[in-house]
C-alpha cells in the first residue's frame, strides 16, 4: 500500500489509569512507527507484529517498513486465520515467538488484523511477562469500530466463545480505512451492523448520517466501502470509535453501562448458536438480533413502529439479513437461558427506548436504551411468532 497519508484524527479513550488514543486516517498505516514513537516508545524497542497470512500479504510490509523507519526493532509472526484458530494453543505460538525474540517488559506487540488476531495478540500481550504493551491495528470494519477498542482480549474454550480472557487496554489503536479496500464485502457489511448499533443505542448524529446514505441508496448505500465513500467512512469510523470510547471510559469492566454495547447480541447469539457457527457472520446475526430486540421494544411499548422501521431501513441498506431464520421458539427460549448475559436465571435484554416513551421503572435506562430482565416468556413467544 503506497497511499499518501491524509490527516489523522484522534479520539481519546479517557480511562483514568491508562488513557489512550485512537488514531484514524486514510493511509495512516504508513505512519504506524511514528505514531507508536509518539506514545513515548523509545527507538530500539522490540516490536512483534502478529498478523495472519492474508493481512500480511496486503499490509505486513508497510507495517514493518514503517516500524523500522521509526527506529523500532520489528519482527513478524504470521498465525493462521479463522475463528477456529482463536485458541490457547495459538496464543502459545505467540508466547513462543515472544520467548525466542526475547521480548522484554518494555517490548510491544502489534496486532495487525481483524478481531481474531486482535483478541489473541491482545491476550498474549496481557499475559506475557504479566503484561506488555499492545497496539491494535484493526483491518476489518468490525475490529475498527468494536473489537480493537476497549481492552477485551481472549480466546475461545471448547465450552464457549471468549471464555478465557483478560482486560488489557491497548497503548494505541491505529485505524487506516484504506485497509478495508481488500476486505471481502460480506465482512464489511457485518461490521456495518455494529456501526448501526452505535446509532440506535444513542448517537443521533450517526443515525442521521446513516439514514442519509440509506435514503440515497436503500438497497446498498451502506453495503460496501465503495458505496459509502471515503468521507462518510471516516465519519462513521470516528463516530463509532467515539461512541465506544465514551462507554468504555465510563465503565471499563462492564459493571453496568458497557452492557449497552450488547444491543442485538442476546438474540444474535441465539441465532449464531442455533443455526450453527459459520452460517451467519457475527455482524449478520447481530443485525437479526437488533430486529428481534426492536420488535420486543415495540411489543413492550418502548419505541414506535417508525423508529423500528428506520432501524430496519439501515440494516437493509447495509445488505444485512432481514429475515428471521426458521427457529423453534422453544429452542430459542432454552438457548436464551444458556446465554452469558443471563443473571440469576433472568435474561437481560438491551432494548431500544424512544425519547417519547416516558419515565421507565422496569430497568436501567442509558440514553436511548433500557436494560430489562423482566421480559415475560409469553412476550418473547409473541415476538418470535411475529418475526417468523
Ligand atoms: P476476523 O478477524 O476473522 O476477520 C474476518 C476475515 O477477514 C478473516 O478471514 C481475515 O483474514 C480477513 N481480513 C481481515 N482484514 C482484512 C483485510 N483488510 N483485507 C482482506 N481480508 C481481511 O473477524 P472479525 O469480524 O474482524 O472479528 C471477529 C472476532 O472479533 C471474533 O472472534 C469476536 O469474538 C471478536 N470480537 C471481539 C471484541 C472485543 O471487544 N474484543 C468485540 C467484537 C468481536
Ligand atoms: N464488544 C462489546 C464490548 O466491548 O464490550
Write a brief structural summary.
The protein is α/β, with parallel strands linked by helices and 388 residues long. It has 14 helices and 14 strands.
The run of helices and strands is: EEHEHEHEHEHEEEHHHHHHHHEEEEEH
Query: Which molecules are bound besides the chains?
Result: nicotinamide-adenine-dinucleotide, glycine
**What does the largest sheet look like?**
7 strands, mixed
What is the annotated CATH architecture of the largest domain?
Answer: Up-down Bundle
Looking at the structure, the CATH topology of the largest domain is Dehydroquinate synthase-like, alpha domain
So what's the overall shape? globular
Radius of gyration over C-alpha positions, nearest whole angstrom: 21 Å
Which parts are unreliable, with pLDDT below 50 for 5 consecutive residues or more? none
- Mean pLDDT level: 95
CATH superfamily of the largest domain: Dehydroquinate synthase-like - alpha domain
Roughly how much helix do the residues carry, as a percent range? 40-55%
Number of domains: 2
Tally of individual helices: 14
Number of strands: 14
Numbering strands along the chain, what is their spatial order in the largest sheet? 1-2-9-6-5-3-4
What is the end-to-end distance? Answer: 46 Å
Range of strand content: 15-25%
What's the CATH first level of the largest domain? Answer: Mainly Alpha
Q: Indicate the structural class.
A: alpha/beta
